[in-house]
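Sequence only, no structure available. Ideas?
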Amino acid sequence: MIPLIIGAAAAVGIVGGAGKLLALRSTKGSAPGLVDGKLAALGNAPNAVSSEADTPEARKVAPFKDATLDAVLTAINATGGKIVTQQKGYAAAIYTTQLMGYVDDVELRVSGKTVHIRSASRVGYSDRGVNRARVEEIRNMLGAEKIISG
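Reply:
I predicted one. Tokens follow.
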């Protein structure tokens, strides 16, 4: 019984250490930015979502229609994001998880009265739905903002 407990404790330590290394690695780098005027395509790992037209259906989210970049940035700030880049028609923000300190990128691209969004984990394979939930939280904040200001 004791070897099993020691083995389990060691496994937790290894996984915990690996998680901390991944979290540290996620603090390096930045969002990919625009590629040919659009948000970058998603990688192979299912840890991201996007509203761009070429996104696979399973990882697609709706863009924010009739929204302004400023309104979406306000919603990002209200939901715990930190704006790191803001230019004409483009912005990038980061979210950092509280428990392990993982960094995820959120990028926005304005097209007319539509704001496209890409939310992606910097490291790891699965995000357990965190990026999709984040986009919906931002969407809900935008809806609440319209109710308050409208």
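The beta strands are 34-35, 38-39, 48-50, 64-65, 82-87, 90-96, 103-111, 114-121.
Hope that gets you unstuck.
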